[in-house]
Structures are given as structure tokens and as C-alpha cells.
Amino acid sequence: MVQQVSDAELELMKIIWAKGGRVLYAQIMDELAAAGSRWQKNTVITLLSRLVEKGLLKTNKIGRRNEYAALVTEADYQALQTEKLIKKFYEGNAKGLVSTLIQRDMLTAEDYEELRQFWEEENKSR
User: Fold this and answer.
1) What is the rounded CA–CA span in Å between residue 54 and residue 68?
2) What are 5-57's pLDDT values in tens digits?
3) Could you give the CA distance from residue 22 to residue 24 in angstroms, rounded to a whole number?
4) Rounded to an integer, what distance in angstroms lies between the CA atom of residue 123 and that of residue 115?
5) Global pTM value
6) In which band, very low, low, confident or very high, does the pLDDT at 1 lie, cut at 50, 70 and 90?
7) Whole-number percent of the chain with pLDDT over 70
8) Within 10 Å of residue 118's Cβ, how many Cβ atoms?
9) Nearest Cα to 52, choosing from 61, 39, 64?
10) Relative to the CA of 112, which of 34, 55, 73, 96 has its CA 20 to 30 Å away?
11) Gap between the Cα atoms of 23 and 57, Å rounded
């Protein structure tokens, strides 16, 4: 089971996923700098170590450089977190989540139509 990650850890994972799931430490630092982040080297190394401990990343040595590889895809992580959210707040009932999205205007008519079309396509392929 994949553990929950902090917002800072998730920011690093998003960089790694955006780079195809494999990235060098220097590339992570470049992406953080480009985004205006001023994280220190030790902070990033600590966060990456935690992600390795949590089973989301593995480290490969390439010469003297570290490459970080995602062990969980972004889609799989999102699905796991969505399942946790539904269990925690909606007692496992996804309909409750969708109802909240509609009632709070977080799901537009266009979103609904896209989802309906997606649903129909998924059911045809089964």
C-alpha cells in the first residue's frame, strides 16, 4: 500500500512524473528553480529520501549522479488517493462525491457532458 505524501513530496513527484517517471537530481533542482522555488539542496535530498522510504521512488546511481525513478504512476497514485477520500468522507459511496461536486458548482455542465461521453465509451469497450 502506498503511503500518503506531504505537499512538498507531492511537488517533487509531479516533477518526476512530468519527466516520464525518471529524472536526475540536477533536473529536479532545475525544475524547482524554474518554478521560482528556493528549496535548499538538503531539503530536496531529505524529501527524496522520504519518497524512497515510502516506496514511491527508487534511486539508481549513474556514475556519481542519482537518478530517481517513480515506482508508482501518477494515475495510480491519484486513484489510490481518490479511493481514500471516498472511503473517508463518503463511506465508500462515489455518488456522494459527485453530488458534492455538482451541488457546489465544481462540476460544470461541460464537465458533465465530457464525463457522460467518457462513460459511454468505457461501457462500449467492455
Assistant:
1) 14
2) 999 999 999 999 999 999 999 999 999 999 999 899 999 999 999 999 999 99
3) 7
4) 12
5) 0.84
6) low
7) 99
8) 10
9) 61
10) 73
11) 11
Whole-angstrom distance, CA of residue 84 vs CA of residue 81: 5
Q: How far apart are CA 37 and CA 124, in angstroms?
A: 45
Q: Locate 89 and state its grid cell.
A: 468522507
Distance of CA 94 to the CA centre of its chain: 20
Tell me if 70 sits within 8 A of 16, measured CB to CB: yes
3-state secondary structure the chain: CCCCCCHHHHHHHHHHHHCCCEEEHHHHHHHHHHCCCCCCHHHHHHHHHHHHHCCCEEEEEECCEEEEEECCCHHHHHHHHHHHHHHHHHCCCHHHHHHHHHHCCCCCHHHHHHHHHHHHHHHHHC
Are 17 and 73 in contact by the 8 Å Cβ rule? The answer is yes
Tell me: pLDDT of 65 over 90. Answer: yes
60 forms beta bridges with 67
Q: Which residues have C-beta within 8 Å of that of residue 52, sequence separation ≥ 6?
A: 58, 59, 68
